[in-house]
C-alpha cells in the first residue's frame, strides 16, 4: 500500500532551496510514498524569534496550518527542523490547553476553520528512518556516494525531544550512510549552526559558533556537510561566506539530506537547481555523481554483475 503524507515545506525551502522540494517528491516517490501539497499554508511561524515576539499570534498561525492539514486526514510531513518544532509544540499545547484552543478557534472561525486535536506532525527524518528505513533507501541506490565523507549536522530543533540527543544524531547519520557516504566523526556535531545568534550579531555567531564548528569539520577530513534543516543549511553556507570575508578560506559544500539521497538514486545534478546554493554543491555533485546517464550506466553494469537492480 502506498504511504501518503501531506507535506509542509515552510518558508526557507520554496524561497531559497527549490532543489530540496523537488528532491523530496522524487525520493518519497521512489520509496513508494506520495507527498501531497498543503495549499494556502503560511509560515509555521519561526520557532525562536516569532514565538518570542508574538506568542499568541504565533499560536494562531500554527493552529491554522494544523487545521488545514487535518482536513487531509494524513500525517503532516515537515521538511524543516524549525517548522517541525513549532508545529509539534503547538499541537501539544492546543491539544491539552482548552482555554488556548478556544481562543485560537475564535480567531480561526473567521476563516471557516477549526483546530481539533489529533494532527500527527512528523519530521521527514523520523519518517525515513522509522517508517521506511535505511535498508529501503539502500535498495534504491543506483550510484553510491563513493569518495564522499560527510560531517552530519542534525540541528538544535531536532535535538529537542524526549530522546537523547545522540539518538537523534544517529538517525541522520544512518540515513546519510545508506547512500554510501562515509560519516565523519567530529566533536562539535551538536553545536548550533549559529542562525539565531547571527540575527543579533553576525560577528558573535561567526567567531563563537561558525568558526569553531568549521574548524572541527575540516579537521575531521569531511569534504561535505549534510543536514536535514534548510535554515541550518543556509546559515552554514552564509557563515562560511562571512568567514571568507574575514580571511578564513573555507568553502565546504553543504547539502540537504534529501538532495544527497536523490543524487544516490540517480538524480541529475545538472537538473536539480543546485546552483542556487551559496556553497559549491553543484560542482561537488557533478564530481561525485556525474549526470543521470552515468547513473543509468552504473545501474546496468550492476545488473550484469549480480542480476540485481540496486547497490546495497
Task: Describe it.
The protein has helices at residues 12-16, 18-30, 49-53, 55-70, 81-96, 98-108, 124-132, 134-140, 156-159, 165-177, 195-200, 202-219, 230-245, 257-264, 281-289, 292-306, and strands at 3-8, 33-36, 76-78, 121-123, 149-153, 182-184, 224-227, 254-256. By secondary structure, the protein is an alpha/beta fold. The protein contains 16 helices and eight strands. The two termini are 24 Å apart. The chain is globular. The strands form two sheets. It has a four-stranded parallel sheet, sandwiched between helices. Helix 2 (18-30) packs across helix 14 and helix 7 packs across helix 8 (134-140). The model is unreliable at 293-312 (pLDDT under 50). The longest helix is centred in the C-terminal third of the chain and has 18 residues, at 202-219. It folds into two domains: 3-124, Up-down Bundle (Glutathione S-transferase Yfyf (Class Pi), Chain A, domain 2), CATH 1.20.1050.140; 141-298, Rossmann fold (3-Layer(aba) Sandwich), CATH 3.40.50.11810. The chain is 55% helix and 10% strand.
